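Notebook entry, cofactor series.
This is the third protein in the set we're modelling with a bound small molecule. For this one the ligand is adenosine-5'-triphosphate. I'm keeping the input format identical across the series so the outputs can be compared line by line later. Sequence and SMILES below, as received.
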Amino acid sequence: MALFGKGSKGIAAVDVPPAMDAERAARLGYTHDNKLSKHAFMEGEHPVVRIEHLNKTFDGQTQVLRDVNLNVWNGEIVVVLGPSGSGKSTMLRCINLLETPTAGHILIEDEEITGRKPKDVALIRRELGMVFQGFNLFPHLTALENVMIGQTKVLKKSKEEARAEAVKQLTAVGLADRMDYKPPQLSGGQQQRVAIARAVAMHPKVLLFDEPTSALDPELVRDVLNVMKDLALHGDMTMIVVTHEMGFARDVADRVVFMEGGVVVEQGLPEDVFDRPKNVRTAQFLGSIE
Amino acid sequence: MSRFRRGHVVARSCLFVALLLAAALLMPSEAYALTTNKATARPNENGGSNVIGGLATRLTWEGTVEDGESVSSVTLVLPEGGTFAGSSTKITALDGLDRAAVDGFATANDNQLVVVFSQPVDEGLLIRLEVEGMAFPSEGGDVVVSGTYENASGTQQLADSKPISTIANTSLQMLVATLDEMEAVQAWNSNPFLGMFFKPQLLVTAFSSLLPGWLLCLVIVVVAYPFAIALGLVFAFMKISRHRLVRAIAIVYINVLRGTPLFLQIYIMFFGLPMMNVNIDNNVLGVIVIAINASAYLAEIFRAGIQSIPQGQYEAASSLGMSYFQTMFNIILPQTIRRVIPTVTSDFITSYKDTSLLSSVGVMELMMFAKNLTSVSGNMTPYVAAAIFYLIVTLPLIKVVTYIENRMAHAERGGGPRPKAGERSAVEEAASDDLAAAELSTHFEGLGEGQLAPVPVFARMAQEV
Ligand SMILES: Nc1ncnc2c1ncn2[C@@H]1O[C@H](COP(=O)(O)OP(=O)(O)OP(=O)(O)O)[C@@H](O)[C@H]1O
Ligand SMILES: [Mg+2]
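Returned structure with ligand:
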């Protein structure tokens, strides 16, 4: 599809410079993010995730991401906000290589992940945990097996090791008594907590959350958010969270990123973005939400 | 000394054999004053053409009185176990085509029947004895009717009849005989419908004689099905392959097999292969045809099953770092199998019934036996028996399908009481009972995906003969 679209539909190929060298990127990234994030920067620290000039066009005509640039640092909690259709999910899915970027670079720990062979892609993905809006638990497996299967099949851990880890993670999300339940027997909130445990058990470098609570009934949202807060505050997990939960963003985020129309419109400390938005669109969006 | 004695013995046995030979040569068949023409028995198998031992039947014996002779009595003897007790004998004498007046009476005496004529039967006449209600030995086998007769010069040995082949009387045949006797059964059979379709005697007979055909049906389909499943999976994967050529091959295979009658496929295989000098055992060929035919349907079922698994499952698996094959074998196929079990079971039922078409090319399966028995008995009951044999397998399987479908629907609803959140998706899922909706739901990430939705049953086209 893209083959036909690019030329014939007249979408200009985005001119993207090659990925910067790691040192320069780290320096530039630090200078840019320093005042925008609560993250405690360390001397000479390199970002875990580096997104440079990311572009994504669907079907050769719908440009969903336009030159997105973003660094995410080790242990940082980044919350991505934005109206529906602004490309938040697409950005997350690009980081996870569930979508192939049309142009630009994504680097994980200074290693380019874009344009890789399928075999490498599988290796890269195990470093990136993803929690989906729709949970996507494996319905034929129990909660425990859901958390174990990635460990045994991908990380090649022994059953015992995997089980011990799964028990640990399920206990951490408050589901010690539901480990032998299958997903259809669990509430949405419980399912999402299993999904978080499943992702965390892989000990990924970065955890990606795509609106983890928006498919849930209001009374179940809190449990999931608490689990995420717990992870954010007590773990050393790096998280990119797409959500509409403003409370969560305010309390937990190190940095809030506001996207619209495939562009990062504004980013900064949560209190800055929420209370003193610089961009009109951000203000409008937050106004319409709160 | 011992050597001398042995020689003596040898000489004496030689002499004995020589005498026997001479006796045989001196006694040619023309020496009989009464020649045995024939001895036959009326079949007494219900719905069959066999003569069953131990059950009443009619023996017809004929002999000709030779020139210059006259016969005053005939005694027929059955082997041990045969009986004339309770029989009635009709005596006829024929002169060419004319009936000659002959009178006499018969005395049944266990395995001997003595017929004494009022006047001696003259030369050239054919004596026919029709003994109604006699029975051959129960153990069955070739039975020879022997006996004696009396002429002017006294009692003579009767030449042995040609052997009458009989079959052993089993408990089944005794049951049929008992049924024959029962008044209720006779009344039942006097109803034209019941007698034509549900004749108890034939039902009993049919069950035993259709059994091997039924077993062959089962063997054919049970052996064919695993191959069909394996082939079906292969073609299902081919049909969703990324390579156009591979996909095209699968599409042609599936569409040709699904688009033509099985009957035609059977004819092509059974008549075509021998013409190419490929000779395969009929039963094996039957297995092959059924397996190939079913594989096309199964391929479609599997393909639809695989594609009905929400995209989110692939995404979740691959975001854990699973490869395509790991995703397929650990995540997608286990769910597919669960989903397609009812449909595959329905398809198994169809294949099982389809084995009946093999009767048209001489595979000795259930229908073949039923057809044969019906043409011998002129009664529809064997077909009813065949129907029962088919139903023995299909009805429980249909029940199993319903049970699994209900259980899946139940599991989809959460398998019991559960918090409110799940119910919403269950309701939406209930509405999305077909593939289009299943595909749609993958776009609405998460709403009810991961729930088991039964794959719609792809009704096979009726494959009529
Ligand atoms: N596979 C696809 N093919 C074509 N267009 C797509 C595809 N996926 C997403 N889009 C389009 O890209 C745009 C951005 O979608 P995306 O899901 O990233 O938005 P979002 O910010 O996550 O919105 P939401 O808050 O509703 O989840 C939308 O207009 C959507 O229609
Ligand atoms: Mg989204």
